[in-house]
């Protein structure tokens, strides 16, 4: 579904991604772990062109998206993204947050968008909050709305950048549960997270990033059970 080749990204003098080549298969759950500042967010943001790569190519569903004239809006319809911060519109209801983009961007009929929005809110366990405003929700509820909103565009892949890092501990589980359900339904996912339990249980493949490169990758058993690179060993000794 996604093929990344020799991806480099610099901000001025600061080289952040230093040659990443990676593929993501349809239906795969790829979990990216690594220390703060290693380039995980930049990598995800390059995948959906929130950042323009300095060099290298990204092919998504057979199309090179790193070419000059590629339509970024079309791409983002197919790649949903969930951030650490939820970025909900405060003056719209929960349901309006979920249905706005499908109506405005995809031209869905309001009634169809509403029906689908309610289904998605049910999926994330928030049917009863459809007419509430974001400010009345907990962090975990807001993040579940953000997931429903991304899914409303009917994406082919979902990118998650530390979706539980801003949450109080007691709300982490409810968000991970929604992500698990999505994974089990076969959604292709790239997930940056510090939740090693989720990585172990749901990851088809774990990538360990450090200093702008993928130092090591493997199945959860390989990477957590028998890490090969000293940097991986060192990182895991701090987080496990
Ligand atoms: P991670 O998500 O692994 O913590 P990031 O990808 O956020 O790492 O950041 C990696 C490096 O890139 C950091 O040194 C950060 O300061 C730098 N960086 C990220 N985004 C920008 C930006 N928009 N402008 C300048 N530097 C950036
Ligand atoms: Mg980050």
In short:
The protein has 240 residues and is an alpha/beta fold.
Spell out which ligands are present.
adenosine-5'-diphosphate, magnesium ion
Radius of gyration: 18 Å
Can you count the helices? 9
* Order of strands, widest sheet: 6-7-8-3-9-10
Distance separating the two termini: 31 Å
In total, the number of strands is 10
Order of helices and strands: EEEHEEHEHHHEHEHEEHH
Structure description:
Keywords: Amino-acid transport, ATP-binding, Cell membrane, Membrane, Nucleotide-binding, Transport. It is a peripheral membrane protein. It is found in: Cell membrane. Its main location: membrane. The protein has 240 residues and is an alpha/beta fold. Helix content is 38%, strand content 25%. It contains 9 helices and 10 strands. The chain has a 6-stranded mixed beta sheet, with helices on both faces. A hairpin with a 2-residue loop joins β4 and β5. α3 packs across α4, α4 crosses α5 and α5 runs parallel beside α6. It is globular. The model has no long low-confidence stretch (mean pLDDT 96). The protein binds adenosine-5'-diphosphate and magnesium ion. Adenosine-5'-diphosphate (ADP) binds next to β2 and α1. The site of magnesium ion has 4 residues, from α1.
Helix-strand blueprint:
Blueprint: E1 2-11, E2 14-24, E3 29-33, H1 40-47, E4 55-60, E5 63-64, H2 72-78, E6 79-82, H3 94-104, H4 110-123, H5 139-151, E7 157-161, H6 169-184, E8 188-192, H7 196-202, E9 205-210, E10 213-218, H8 220-225, H9 230-239
Parallel strand pairs: 3-8, 3-9, 6-7, 7-8
Antiparallel strand pairs: 1-2, 1-4, 4-5, 9-10
Helix pairs in contact: 3-4, 3-5, 4-5, 5-6
């Amino acid at each position: 579904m996604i093929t990344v080749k020799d991806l480099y990204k610099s901000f001025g003098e600061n080289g952040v991604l230093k040659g990443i080549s990676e593929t993501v298969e349809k239906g795969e759950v790829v979990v990216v772990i690594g220390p703060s500042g290693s380039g995980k967010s930049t990598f995800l943001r390059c995948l959906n062109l929130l950042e323009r790569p300095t060099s290298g190519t990204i092919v998504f569903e057979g199309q090179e998206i790193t070419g000059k004239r590629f339509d970024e809006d079309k791409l983002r319809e197919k790649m949903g993204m969930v951030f650490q911060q939820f970025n909900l519109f405060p003056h719209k209801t929960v349901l309006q947050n979920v249905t706005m983009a499908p109506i405005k961007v995809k031209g869905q009929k309001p009634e169809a968008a509403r029906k689908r929005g309610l289904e998605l809110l049910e999926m994330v366990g928030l049917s009863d909050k459809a007419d509430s405003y974001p400010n009345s929700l907990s962090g975990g509820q807001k993040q579940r709305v953000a997931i429903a909103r991304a899914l409303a565009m009917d994406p082919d892949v979902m990118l998650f950048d530390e979706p539980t890092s801003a949450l109080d501990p007691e709300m982490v589980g409810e968000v991970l549960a929604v992500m698990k359900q999505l994974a089990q339904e076969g959604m292709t996912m790239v997930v940056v997270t510090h939740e090693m339990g989720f990585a172990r249980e749901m990851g088809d493949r774990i990538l360990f990033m450090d200093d702008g490169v993928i130092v090591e990758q493997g199945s959860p058993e390989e990477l957590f059970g028998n890490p090969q690179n000293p940097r991986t060993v060192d990182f895991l000794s701090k987080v496990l």
